[in-house]
């Protein structure tokens, strides 16, 4: 990960309230990855999820507060992310994914998708998701590392964000 992103996280922690901090972190991540959308998708105790924060390149792409109910996301996938699964999809049209998941991503205007779990002491808290909506994209190791570092930073606030 670029040193500037890590320095930005440290500076932001000192000056911003938690909600502002999360938003600033997502904005910085979106710009660093040069993606169209980054969302924080958090789960409640029943494993029902909702987009609670987002950073966008274009307001027309907003899915904030969406339940984002992917019919294909079940306890099997939840367990994979609980175990630390990272899912990088460079092109949703050629990736071997379930058709209902492909339809869900199309509905969100997604061409390429990167998902990293947000894990805290009690397990899977949510997902950090980056979307390319304009084109397909080959995710690099640096992209994945930036997402992992960001997810780790967000996990620090997971309990307070639940309140």
From TrEMBL:
Signal peptide: none annotated. InterPro entries: GAF (IPR003018), GAF-like_dom_sf (IPR029016), Phyto_chromo_attachment (IPR016132). Pfam families: GAF. Residues 17-152 form the Phytochrome chromophore attachment site domain. This is Phytochrome chromophore attachment site domain-containing protein.
């Amino acid at each position: 990960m670029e040193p500037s992103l890590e320095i930005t996280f440290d500076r932001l922690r000192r000056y911003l309230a938690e909600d502002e901090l999360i938003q600033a972190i997502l904005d910085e991540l979106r710009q660093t990855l040069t993606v169209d959308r980054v969302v924080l998708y958090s789960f409640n105790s029943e494993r029902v999820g909702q987009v609670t924060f987002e950073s966008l390149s274009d307001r027309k792409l907003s899915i904030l507060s969406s339940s984002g109910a992917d019919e294909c996301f079940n306890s099997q996938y939840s367990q994979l992310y609980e175990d630390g699964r990272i899912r990088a999809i460079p092109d949703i049209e050629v990736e071997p994914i379930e058709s209902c998941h492909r339809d869900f991503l199309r509905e969100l205007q997604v061409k390429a998708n990167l998902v990293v779990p947000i894990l805290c002491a009690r397990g899977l808290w949510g997902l950090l998701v980056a979307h390319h909506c304009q084109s397909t994209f080959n995710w690099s190791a640096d992209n994945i590392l930036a997402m992992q570092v960001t997810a780790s930073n967000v996990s620090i606030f997971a309990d307070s964000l639940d309140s």
